[in-house]
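Query structure, 393 tokens:
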């Protein structure tokens, strides 16, 4: 053991060289689109575009073409009738929806298919590490989300359902778009052998040579050691982190991440409403000059957010960009912080007519950030689309 990590020999290490930015393309064993995204994306392929057509029965889910609707019917029929009956009151958990879909797939394909390197039933559950209180809480969730909310085929006994619930919750992946907005969830059994690391991004953003182990990190790297272990115990029933070297720096960063309070937002809106945006220009310039006074207090991000709100209200996109940079800059000192690309991308798309300079600059910075991230890389489809946006500006 070294620094709290156990090293051991295992089969299935990298069989060939991986470059920084390569993205594995794997078919999900089961996937689902968030209910909140119904109407914005295709239920089957997750494509987000106009011209989506409603499901002919429930009128709630949408598809980009007839082929997607037909291909998704085996999964959607589990939810179609309950949605018709319950309408807006139908709101099971994402894990419950995934379990129902996995049960349906098991009924159709009870044996592992040749394309599956690892079967769902072989996934680790850490069931033996649960205390009684956690077991009691988990036992109620599958019954509520699967047995009652779905027409799930051959619902197994509750003990087996609990194991399914833990496996899916433990190995579920979040599906996001290019702006890191949450779209849904999926299970990829073949990704399960990837080893969890507690070294932030140091182990992932590098070239991997044959014979080396592949690592991933699925807990926010800005959490302190204690908070990360709490998250691991709550979600995955084990813990790893022992190194507290960066805890002090993380605490400093967290001071900037609290959202502005509702009273402060109301204050800004009232000022803009009663006094008009032009009267706030001078205070804005003065507070920007004195912003260093806020840097060592919890007021820092609140101050930056309020100034950005004023700039956006006045459609001063050029003035809003520096505030965004100040908010995320502390994170970039210690980590490759993925939301940075998302923030640049959103700001680049906010600019109105006549504000191409600031929009182009933000989009270019989004591309730079995305190319540095192992999840995107230089040849990613999202980057190609953003470059096309730049050409059309």
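Result returned for the query:
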């Amino acid at each position: 053991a070294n620094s709290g990590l156990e090293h051991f020999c295992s089969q299935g290490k990298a069989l060939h060289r991986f470059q920084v930015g390569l993205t594995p393309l794997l078919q999900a064993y089961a996937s689902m689109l968030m209910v909140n995204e119904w109407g914005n994306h295709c239920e089957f392929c997750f494509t987000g575009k106009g011209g989506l057509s409603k499901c002919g029965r429930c009128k709630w889910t949408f598809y980009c073409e007839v082929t997607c609707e037909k291909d998704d019917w085996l999964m959607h029929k589990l939810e179609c009738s309950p949605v018709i009956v319950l309408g807006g009151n139908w709101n099971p958990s994402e894990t419950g929806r995934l379990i129902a879909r996995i049960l349906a797939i098991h009924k159709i394909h009870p044996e592992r298919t040749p394309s599956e390197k690892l079967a769902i039933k072989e996934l680790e559950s850490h069931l033996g590490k649960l205390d009684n209180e956690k077991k009691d809480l988990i036992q109620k969730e599958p019954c509520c989300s699967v047995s009652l909310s779905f027409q799930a085929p051959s619902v197994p006994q509750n003990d087996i359902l609990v194991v399914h619930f833990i496996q899916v919750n433990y190995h579920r992946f979040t599906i996001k778009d290019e702006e890191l907005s949450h779209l849904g969830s999926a299970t990829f059994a073949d990704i399960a052998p990837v080893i969890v690391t507690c070294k932030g991004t140091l182990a992932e953003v590098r070239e991997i040579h044959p014979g080396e182990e592949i690592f991933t990190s699925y807990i926010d790297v800005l959490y302190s050691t204690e908070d990360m272990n709490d998250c691991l115990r709550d979600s995955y029933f084990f813990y790893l982190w022992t190194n507290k070297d960066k805890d002090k720096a993380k605490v400093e960063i967290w001071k900037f991440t609290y959202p502005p309070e509702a009273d402060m937002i109301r204050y800004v809106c009232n000022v803009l409403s009663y006094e008009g945006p032009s009267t706030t220009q001078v205070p804005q310039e003065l507070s920007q000059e004195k912003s260093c006074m806020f840097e060592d207090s919890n007021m820092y991000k609140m101050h930056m957010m309020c100034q950005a709100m004023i700039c956006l209200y006045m459609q001063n996109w050029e003035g809003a960009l520096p505030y965004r940079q100040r908010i995320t800059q502390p994170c970039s000192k210690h980590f490759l912080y993925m939301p940075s690309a998302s923030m640049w991308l959103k700001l680049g798309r906010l600019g109105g007519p006549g504000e191409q300079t600031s929009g182009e600059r933000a989009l270019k910075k989004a591309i730079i950030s995305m190319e540095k991230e192992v999840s995107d890389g230089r040849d990613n489809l999202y980057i190609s689309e953003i470059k096309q946006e730049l050409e059309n500006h």
